[in-house]
């Protein structure tokens, strides 16, 4: 697994043992789950669908899928499954799984979903093709990844500096902060049909869900951001203060989702 200077592993950036990470994942669920569920519902899932949730995090979508497809089977995977508990969901399988190193049989799933996963993988196109192959004919692939283009164009100069530092840090370890901005082309190149994409944004006010999510994210990678030389610790502290101040208003980072169906 790729390491950052100093030996920090990519998987350690958002350690599930960190209480701030558990809080951060809960905010991601609050912010993004309604849009994820609505998009999956648009695929008209059957009760007997077999589903794969890659990078399941704290498990909200995996649990929802297990209830939504009670006659099917749901596999929830992550590099760290310590926050996942399948109690009460007999059709839910929890598996520690590294998507870059391990695979599933061709034609296994009716739905493959990954949120904030592929932008953190070095061989993104190769991984997408592999995931598309895990679909049964007619099955759907749904990808959701963040993009910082809203922060890059913020009227606030410090938020722009924090975004620039984040981009530099991510690229140093093989992440691509602009990966999702190229949607839906990668799904088309993978041979998927009925390809679509969307991006939904609402205002971010200091202290609300979106702002607190960004504040926690910056907080967990604070030293790494400063190490890029793009922003100082004093400036980053000021950004954190803004994100907690209800008078501060801007757009949050975008989440872009794209989908396609295997023919």
Automatic annotation (TrEMBL):
Signal peptide: none annotated. Residues 1-38 are annotated as: Disordered. The keyword DNA damage does not apply. It comes from the Bacteria. It holds the Pfam family Methyltransf_23. Keywords: Methyltransferase, Transferase. GO terms for molecular function: methyltransferase activity. GO terms for biological process: methylation. PANTHER family: PUTATIVE (AFU_ORTHOLOGUE AFUA_2G14390)-RELATED, TRANS-ACONITATE 2-METHYLTRANSFERASE-RELATED. This is Class I SAM-dependent methyltransferase. It comes from Amycolatopsis speibonae.
